[in-house]
Design a protein that fits this description.
Strand order of the largest sheet: 21-22-1-23
Bound molecules: uridine-diphosphate-2(N-acetylglucosaminyl) butyric acid
Distance between the termini: 11 Å
Largest sheet: 4 strands, mixed
Strand content: 15-25%
Structural class: alpha+beta
Helix content: 25-40%
Number of strands: 23
Amino acid sequence: MEIIEVRGGRTLAGSIAPPAAKNSVLPLLAATLLCGAPCRLRGVPRLTDVDTSLALLTAVGAKAARCGRDVLTAPVPLLGGDIPPHLAGAMRSSVFYLAPLLVRAGQVRLPMPGGCRLGPRPVDIHLDGLAAMGAQIEFAADAVVLRRAGRLHGTDFTLRLPSVGATETLLMAASCAEGTTVLRGAACEPEVEDLAGFLTACGARITGAGTPVVVIRGRAGGLDGCAYTPLPDRISATTYAAAVAAAGGDVTIRRCRPSTFATFLDFLRAAGCEVHAGPNAVRICRDARTPLKGGQELFAAAWPGFATDAAPLAAAVLLTADGPSRIYDGLFQNRFACAAGFAALGAGVRANGRELAIDGGAALCGTVVTAPDLRGGAALVVAALAAQGKTCVLDEGHIRRGYQSLPAELASLGAACRPA
Ligand code: EPU
């Protein structure tokens, strides 16, 4: 059990840059399996999900290791297709190994993927798309097993909803399939575009990534390698922005592509923060003596909508705002498990399925709370910045799956926040 101790009531100041995006790095690590030449991923953060990915790569016989701030991979002639259950169960992103191992090893066995308990997280779209490309699928008691007789082949496939992970699975598979694949109803998130950017740098032929229709002309001979810098983490940047909105202060977030979290910045403006966004940096100011404006109605949806990962962070900001707000999450059924922690801090909140109702106007008071998941845990840390006295956020390791060191990052801006 890890404990993050926060003493609220301090305003934040200074500047900070987010690391590379977790949700880009994780699929990119899996995609390196498709490459017949070495790859370098630059500036890979030290997250537990990255450590799990490196362990998974090693377990299937791949060569991947940290080299300073980067990860280097080297091709190997043979890969195994058995994903160890403890690694599959440690993160949702084990699902990213389905396509590359099916392509490279000819078969793959994936035990139940883990990850945040945000509600049911089926993998049917990943499987339906791979089946359309020629995969044979079998369900064992505790795992799904995929095989291919010949090479995967191109297809015209419509995703029943724009799943980020399934779009990424199918981009990887189609890049090395025979013939052309058209994906319709694809997810358009920046991380999908980033994976397409990496695959293209390795020789894949992809057009339309970042739009709902993506066309991939397969390179059945496999891909080359490349050196690649993944995009900045928009959810880390959102977390810093939420922190300054909750605590007050004046913070510049550098090297962060504000366009990738523009909906959150719009929300902060509507709530009364001063936001100055340029192409690569954003400055956020809030006078802690003036309450933020409540009355906000937020609806989390697929890109370019309000990001679901930002929903608990927005809630943390709104707890003390003057007036009630509501947030609805259109993607996950259990996004607001952090509501119990908000209530323990003294906030008037009610989670009802996908919706969180926030009374606003709370005088938050430090206490002991438990991180229910990654973003919910970060949201409790943010809320604690606005609370009087000391809060201890107990965490079974959720937060370090997505933040290298959230306490140190916030402390660098002047927050009294440290691992206890
Ligand atoms: N879904 C299905 N079937 C599928 C795939 C998805 O029904 O085969 C449903 C899911 O159950 C969910 C919705 O579709 O209700 C959206 O899921 P999606 O596949 O888009 O999400 P994901 O790929 O599992 C990624 C991020 C999440 C982020 C979501 C939405 C990674 C590793 N994870 O998850 O990030 O919330 O997209 O943007 O990329 C996080 O960073 O904390 C996190 C949870």
